[in-house]
């Protein structure tokens, strides 16, 4: 779907004759070039996983986090330009804190997703701002249960059972669709997400990557947190085993 | 929170002294208006004594709403006008207060809010059938005590915010959110307000809840709450008689009994008892006129004349 919008793609405030805003679509391309981000909604919570491509051997393991907590019960995984993502995370944190200060209760996930989407969309309306070059998967567990939202650089926000962004999103989505999410617990979900990310990782093009996993579920007391290390290791082992099986076929 | 000061000659000295956050003291034209060093008892947070009532009619809203209206000439007229009350006049002027009894109780399935109906201006009962239980949203009501104007304005603001919040959330607001909005206004403007409120309602997450927001702006969730001047007489009764998990009829009868005791003992409470019951099925209002209220033991049957009382027993005949 690559089309050149010659002349109509110089400014985010210009429509093309066929009704597209090219700058926003180009922002989407930045997201498509980043490491895969996967989010699934299991029956008791949300699992977020990121294929964090490691560009240099000098980088400390665990730095450059791509999954952030924006509130006690909500997490955000970023795909695309990392610096843009930091801005969105900061805004989401501030929205959530402010909501709780005024209304006295934790911000509902739906409301937070709305606010983040409005903010991202805002930056597609003015010529002096450029759109965010990142997409975001927002997962949270509030009094209406676990919910998963994906917000694209255009400001589009939908609620999902499973969502994926980045290089391997097509393959990831196919894999997610095979899962029976309504019967999966988060413990099992972690393993599935790890398998998906290992599966879509392209060994040839990108060398090393780190798997970042986070969850918010009944087991974590409805708090958003990093998946405990032992579970991550188990998930990695299972994922690698599954890969070898596939290779063996 | 900013207040703004309108320079008023006589009262300025007192208010500036006592409070750096200057209040707008504004005087409506009313016959017999009294401008005294009213602020003293007022600012200490007690309901003003009948003889020293502050003629406050409008305040600078912390949320930058326009002042409710005043006229400079009225101020002068009032100041020049009547002198201090300490001359034997019956105090019948000043701000509308609700010396009041308000009660909120949770029962199994919802909440019942109850209040008396007396609004007094000094010793004059300005409204003997007022409705102190105000709707904030479909499922949350608030009982108001203290300054009538203050609580009305707070209720109006909160209703406005809640309306927007409900639209944004696309579902009814929770009781906790409502109580928090009331509390933020009460706390951030504590120097300017005298409002004791009890917020009660029902939502689908936590069921029936009662939140007490007294003077000063504390917020406290309680299984039952009482407020207003008449509540002093109720602490003992409630401590003794309160039961968890009453049925709806039990709870309604209970609050009526409780409020009628306060009406019997507190001069600033009176009139009828109004109740509002809120539960999953909705809201229902009930009204108990004076003759339907339970009597307390110290209330006696009407007598025709003193002689009847005396003749009741068997007195010794007076022997000449």
TrEMBL record, chain A:
GO terms for biological process: ubiquitin-dependent protein catabolic process. The lineage of its organism: Eukaryota, Viridiplantae, Streptophyta, Embryophyta, Tracheophyta. It comes from Zizania palustris. It is found in: Cytoplasm; Nucleus. It comes from the Eukaryota. It holds the Pfam family Proteasome_A_N. InterPro entries: Proteasome_alpha, Proteasome_alpha-type, Proteasome_asu_N, Proteasome_sua/b. This is Proteasome subunit alpha type. The 20S proteasome core is composed of 28 subunits that are arranged in four stacked rings, resulting in a barrel-shaped structure. The two end rings are each formed by seven alpha subunits, and the two central rings are each formed by seven beta subunits. The proteasome is a multicatalytic proteinase complex which is characterized by its ability to cleave peptides with Arg, Phe, Tyr, Leu, and Glu adjacent to the leaving group at neutral or slightly basic pH. The proteasome has an ATP-dependent proteolytic activity. Belongs to the peptidase T1A family.
From TrEMBL, chain B:
GO terms for biological process: proteolysis involved in protein catabolic process. It comes from Zizania palustris (Northern wild rice). It catalyses: Cleavage of peptide bonds with very broad specificity. Its main location: cytoplasm. Belongs to the peptidase T1B family. Component of the proteasome complex. The keyword Hydrolase applies. This is Proteasome subunit beta. GO terms for molecular function: threonine-type endopeptidase activity. The proteasome is a multicatalytic proteinase complex which is characterized by its ability to cleave peptides with Arg, Phe, Tyr, Leu, and Glu adjacent to the leaving group at neutral or slightly basic pH. The proteasome has an ATP-dependent proteolytic activity. Component of the proteasome, a multicatalytic proteinase complex which is characterized by its ability to cleave peptides with Arg, Phe, Tyr, Leu, and Glu adjacent to the leaving group at neutral or slightly basic pH. The proteasome has an ATP-dependent proteolytic activity. It comes from the Eukaryota. GO terms for cellular component: cytoplasm; nucleus; proteasome core complex. Keywords: Cytoplasm, Hydrolase, Nucleus, Protease, Proteasome, Threonine protease, Zymogen.
